[in-house]
Write a structure and sequence with these properties.
Layout (H helix, E strand, L loop, with lengths): L1 H22 L1 H8 L3 H25 L5 H20 L4 H15 L2 H12 L5 H30 L1 H22 L11 H9 L1 H21 L2 H9 L3 H25 L5 H21 L4 H29 L4 H28 L5 H18 L10
Helix pairs in contact: 1-3, 1-4, 1-6, 1-7, 1-8, 2-3, 3-5, 3-15, 4-5, 4-6, 4-8, 6-7, 6-15, 7-8, 7-12, 7-14, 10-14, 10-15, 10-16, 12-14, 13-14, 13-16, 14-15, 15-16
Length: 381
């Protein structure tokens, strides 16, 4: 059980490293003397690097010892955060963000394929969901903590604190995982085989589309709450906490529910929850209580759908699980980049309600794509 906990906590600090900028966006923009949309480019640029870097780094390191690889990934990202705390300005922070995301790109897909190697096949969906719970905790506990710390101690101290957490997690991963654990080597032919797998390609498209919808709002959640409802810093932190807490509940339920239902059925319930949540956010824009209800429903499904996507991809091509999950991670970051760009476009034009409607459209399209992956008789994915 300790290796699973170590990988889950590794995902927790990786999630903070990747999404943490969203929690301190207003403070970071003020500290670096740039606008909110320009500060948001830190997320977009990082997402582009993660998108390209995830499959490339997983392919390049497929023969490496998993314990060394995962611990080194966290340690390198930690160094990037320490350097960011000392950066002289926006350009340096952006450059460091790009470099450290190369190292961050491999942790989530390698962690998912690693835990799949450590448990029996029937336990893989629930084990993957447990490891992905780290991302949920990053939103539930990490982002509110980052928003609070950035508001009271500044963005430099926040980056330094994130670096300390990453180093501690690297040590835990190194101590907990067995040595000599290696996956199947990934060749050029492996990518071609995945490209010919219709289910894999469709699932990857689904990931990109539904994440795009979510990040049209999520990247700018803090300034959108202020613009639409005059939310205070405390209220914004409460929204992040609510979102993450409901995500934690949703993922915990998913680890049990998937043992009774198929991964497809569990995915459908999760994505329906996301769709209902962003719809309620959009229709109730300006009323904090209604927006909070929307965020709660949205949070309930956001992590569950992603963990189920990983489980379905591994089931669709078990021998190439590391490669398919790496591509799914790429699709997540494609979605983040597209969603951040869409949200930034509307925010820069003083159209704060528009990201919500864009999210409804994109998540609704995701539901349509998901319906095409319904398994036939005898298939459980």
């Amino acid at each position: 059980m300790l290796p699973r906990i170590a990988l889950m906590l590794g995902n927790f600090v990786t999630g903070i490293a990747i999404a943490g900028v969203a929690g301190m966006l207003p403070d970071l923009a003020r500290g670096l003397a740039v606008g909110i949309p320009q500060a948001g480019l830190l997320i977009t640029a990082g997402a582009v690097v993660l998108c390209i870097g995830s499959p490339l780094t997983v392919w390049a390191t497929s023969r490496f010892d998993r314990r060394l690889l995962l611990a080194a990934s966290l340690a390198l990202v930690a160094l990037g955060h320490f350097a960011s705390a000392l950066a002289p300005g926006y350009g340096a922070v952006l450059a460091l963000r790009v470099v450290m995301m190369v190292a961050a790109a491999l942790f989530t897909p390698v962690a998912a394929s690693t835990v799949a190697m450590l448990v029996p096949p029937q336990e893989r969906p629930s084990a993957i969901a447990f490891v992905f719970m780290g991302w949920t905790l990053a939103v539930a506990a990490g982002l509110p903590a980052i928003a609070f710390l950035a508001a009271h101690a500044g963005w430099r101290a926040t980056f330094a604190a994130m670096g300390v957490a990453l180093l501690a997690s690297a040590a835990l991963v190194f101590q907990s995982l067995p040595g000599g654990l290696r996956g199947a080597p990934i060749s050029v032919a492996s990518w071609a085989e995945l490209r010919r797998n219709r289910l894999v390609v469709t699932l990857l498209a689904l990931t990109a589309v539904q994440v795009s919808g979510q990040f049209a709002i999520f990247t700018y959640l803090s300034p959108l709450l202020a613009a639409l409802a005059g939310a205070s810093v405390a209220a914004v932190g409460a929204f992040f906490m609510l979102f993450g807490a409901m995500g934690f509940v949703g993922n915990a339920v998913t680890t049990r529910l998937v043992r009774r239902l198929t991964p497809y059925a569990t995915s459908l319930l999760a994505l329906l929850s996301v769709f209902l949540g962003v719809t309620l956010w959009s229709l109730g824009a300006g009323v904090l209580a209604v927006m909070a209800a929307g965020v709660a429903l949205w949070g309930l499904g956001f992590a569950s759908i992603n963990s189920m996507q990983q489980a379905r991809l591994i089931a669709a091509a078990p021998a190439l699980g590391g490669a398919s999950v790496a591509l799914n991670t790429s699709a997540i970051y494609v979605g983040q980049a597209v969603g951040s760009a869409v949200g930034g476009f509307f925010f820069a034009r003083d159209l704060p309600r528009a990201p919500g409607y864009a999210a409804m459209l994109l998540v609704g399209l995701g539901l349509a794509i998901l319906a095409t992956t319904r398994p036939g008789r005898g298939r459980l994915t």
